[in-house]
Write a structure and sequence with these properties.
The protein is of the alpha+beta class. The chain has one domain: Hypothetical Protein Pfu-838710-001 (Beta Barrel). It is 25% helix and 42% strand. The longest helix has 14 residues, at 146-159. It is globular and about 50 Å long. It starts with a strand and ends in a 6-residue tail after the last helix.
């Protein structure tokens, strides 16, 4: 299964309209939490060249590690993702990665409001306030193929009234001037 995702920049008025639309559609607010993502460089592979990423995320007191494969359908961010929870603290996890040769390269901090649309397959709509960047909407769906992901994202953009805004291919890390993720 692939995760297909699209990111859109929002001005203040568009953000308020989106939040009102989500409420009117009956979207469930899954949660609002601060996230801190620390990205790592591979000891012998250039993640910038291979378009991969390794991230350690702390969110709501929980810690997860995520590998992101190369983007398959830019400007959408359809890619393989492997993610799992860690039963440790950030310092121990970062120390382990450091001892294995991974090097911390950047951090991205944001406040995320995560909503689930009442549709099948599930659609997650995140409204992010990213430190140093501003407001964004990320729409995520699971898909069996790149084509299916593209079609689902396009229909969700129309449903949310965001289909007139250009998608952003870059990650928050890239937008902040870090390496590709």
């Amino acid at each position: 299964m692939l995760e297909a995702e699209v990111k859109i920049r929002l001005d203040a008025a568009r953000k308020e309209r989106l939040l009102a639309s989500l409420q009117a559609m009956g979207a469930l607010l899954i949660g609002e939490h601060r996230q801190e993502d620390e990205y790592f460089a591979h000891p012998s592979r250039d993640f910038l060249a291979s378009d991969e990423a390794l991230r350690l995320r702390e969110s709501g007191g929980r810690l997860r590690i995520t590998y992101k494969g190369p983007k398959l359908d830019p400007p959408r961010k359809t890619r393989e993702e492997i993610e799992f929870a860690l039963e440790t603290d950030r310092e121990n996890a970062a120390d382990l990665l450091d001892r294995l040769g991974f090097r911390a390269i950047a951090r991205v901090r944001k406040l995320r409001r995560e909503h689930r649309l009442p549709d099948e397959p599930p659609t997650v709509v995140c409204v992010d306030e990213v430190e140093g960047l501003g407001s964004f909407c990320e729409i995520e769906v699971e898909a069996e193929s790149v084509e299916a992901g593209r079609a689902r994202l396009a229909s969700r953009l129309v449903k949310l009234g965001l289909d007139d805004l250009p998608p952003i291919a870059e990650s928050y890390l890239e937008l902040l001037g870090g390496t590709r993720a």
